[in-house]
Sequence to fold (768 residues):
Amino acid sequence: MKNAKKLLALLLALVMCLGLLAGCNNSNSASTPADSTPSSSDSADQPEEGKLDTLTIGTSYFDGKFSSFFYTNDYENQVLGLVCGSMYGIDRVGAPVLKALTGETREYNGVDYTYDNGVSDVDVVDNPDGTVTYKFKMREDLVFSDGEPVTIDDAIFSMYVQLDPTFDGISSLTSLPIVGLAEYQNSMKSKSSLIGAAGRDNTDFTNWTEEEQKAFWAAVDDGGAQFVQGIVDYLVEAEANSADDDLSVVAPNWGFEVPQGATAADWFEIIGNQYDWNFAAMEAEIGNSDALADLIPEDVYSMTTEGIAVGEDVPNISGIQRTGDYSMEVTLEHLDVQAQYQLGVTINPLHYYGDAAQYDYDNNKFGFPKGDLSIVRDKTSVPVGFGPYTFVSWENNTVTLQANPNYYLGEPKIKNIVWRSMDDKDLIPALEAGTVDIISPSYNKQAVEQITQINNGEGVTGSVITTQSVANLGYGYAGIAAKNIKVGDDSGSEASKNLRRAICTEVAVYRSLAVDSYYGSELANVINYPISDTSWAAPQVTDEGYREAFSVDVNGDPIYTDGMSAEERYAAAQQAALGFLEAAGYTVEDGKVTAAPEGAKLDYTVTVVGAGIGDHPAFLALSEASKALKEIGFNLVVNDISDFSQMSNAVNAGEAEMFAMAWNATPDPDMYQIYHSQGGSNEKSYWVKDAELDELIMAARNSNDQTYRKTIYKECLDIVADWAVEIPLYQRQNAICFSTERVNIDTLTPAITTYWNWYSDIEKLEMN
Fold:
């Protein structure tokens, strides 16, 4: 469980989360080809006699938190996607469908699709004072699976839960500039933050007891100190520090400054103050070998989720206004392009997750006491929504769902859906054996060969298995921490950039070799910009200024010419790398570097999680680059490890020099989190500090003009390339494999994409 928590923490740090895709938000906006007739929403045909009535899905493992507020992994989120529904959804290219009630027709790959039968229409109004108002109008015939009607109060309740000062679930709604939100949240603090700020010698016990204060500081001295010791032990093991008792020497390698002679408890207190004593945030952001939740007593850990009013009471969020039983308005202080995604919130039933007796909109009561989400947290095992299926059980790592007869688009044709947890290696054999009907296995050359053999040589689609592939919402890359690979003290100097360009040039030239070897040309492709090919903002080969990544030398001239063989390209890259190193200040004699400039080294380490056997798509490129660099006197050490958390800890600590990882992406390519100097992920991975880049990122955030934003993002990507902190490697394909024998393939939703899932029109899917 500790490893699961740490993996989730890293994913949350790397992923730019958005409300529209989180928890129960992928199946509520139906679509049909524009020239066809939608199925009736009043009834659905029962399965014909002799047809199978259960669809079994092979999946990974669940943590058991089936709540759109507090789920902890994406597999739970997929289940929730069939149980719940949201204010609006997205289309096949990831664009929000804001007129799903009225209906919108949009083209994809030459075919018009109509998105209708959705939950609400949204009008966006630019106000004269610079504020922006989103006006929601819901359909009025929705009911939850238990028969209770769905109203705007359920949506308002759901928003207030996510915006509560003590909410610690998965949501980025709180990042929006909603009018009055800051005042609402700042009028309450967590008990842990107040006790921590008051200090050990506090004698005012108005808001907590003396016993609670003693327990808090005892937990700091015991569990908190153990947490810090885990960091120290890791750094010693990673040889970042010797076994030094002086934490003032150790702490800077984890991004903290502590005074000489400080104890482990002192260091933890510094961490606590920096994170406002939010234990969950500390665990997610800081990380080490031990989960903080296992070191801090439960009663103390829960103080993070206990709210205490401070200052003048602010009982509501003024920017959220109920305008009718099925309508509301949300006003933002200014334009924020992320709002169109994040405001598509999951609509959770107030009567189930909250307390209807505590909801009185006119008197600032929203279904629970402000600062106390205990009644919401109690409902994490059985979800309730208005989606196509109802939740029946979770037993023995198996989730069972049943068709919802109250579903507003008609009761699904398949009566039961079962999600069965299993190891990835067992997915394809299980599909062949008929144990499961749908899987999403790791998709590489080995998987293709295995599926083709099962299909008696027919390929990945045949009489036994039907395979559909879509581009993964993300991409693979090799990253460089600018603060750790530099010349002198300035990571943004031309010398520092030239050092990193030398490394990037060598790795980049071997990308095709590595990707083709690991995936094959049909399962992945090399990308030249650090952005997913699935994004509308991704530069295209036909765009002006498009060029291969790291393909010019120190003088800005092309390294490669048309018609070069692979060996000629490798030789040209090696000479270009030598030129970059010489320009960086390295001493070059007889075609080799012999000495490093001040502040730089002759050897650096790149970490890759290849299980010690090179089982990673970046491994071959890194290994070949290492060999080529060694021939010119520069040592790039490839550290192939098995434990992902070991690398993630080093990245989070700012201690890693270079690393091979993958970014998850979102429909909107907002670059703030990854590349802005204040972005949380940037300060863990790249350490880019560039005022022009910051300004461009914010300019793109403050416009709805997609053409303008694409131009701005191209400039951003060029600046990132200039810093030489990220080598874009590959865009891979994901596979969804269906049992041809058991699933009626003809009833699958047409044109499955990265954003439009196979279950987007699940109510129409049939078994054979």
The first strand starts at residue 30 and ends at 33.
